[in-house]
User: Fold this.
Amino acid sequence: MKTVIKVLLAVIILVLSYAIYESIMKPVRFDREKSLRYEGVVQALKDIRDAERLFRQHNKRYTANWDSLVNYMKTGTIPVVKMIPDPKDTTFTRSISDTIGRVAILDSLFGKRTNFDINNLSVIPGSNGQKFELECGKIDKGGLKVDVFEARAHNDVILEGLDSQLIRNLNKGLEDINRFPGLKVGSMLEVTTDGNWE
Assistant:
């Protein structure tokens, strides 16, 4: 009888130990996976920001149309500028900028990136094809109409497949401090192109 009790106690201790270990490791694994997923989404949002800035330089506005943005990135060019000293300046403090050619935006921004596909600019990494939400418009800032844009991905999409309770807890914590429960770049309320991770 004592042997049976000892075996039962050993099993109970093992089960409790495993339960304690899992309760500690579950959030640790969640945070590790969240960091990996966030890393990919942040890079994608930085790419969107770069694309929107260049689109605005050429078109004098942002766009909320993925096809227009991707097409511009495929076909657009930017000038290659060379700075030379002003030959009329004897103090050598002034310079002249000289456009010596143009280079494709796609090559300039993303040419060194392996496995980069501009056609996937709108797709949230690791989301099985779901797209970023993209908006643009104008807001009134001191009597002036200013162009703004915002691209965002909700945590429910970024972290899909992970522990749903931990995702809800994360979202609730962010909402309680009036922060977007996910990752975004730009803003439809302020004149900024910063990301909420910066």
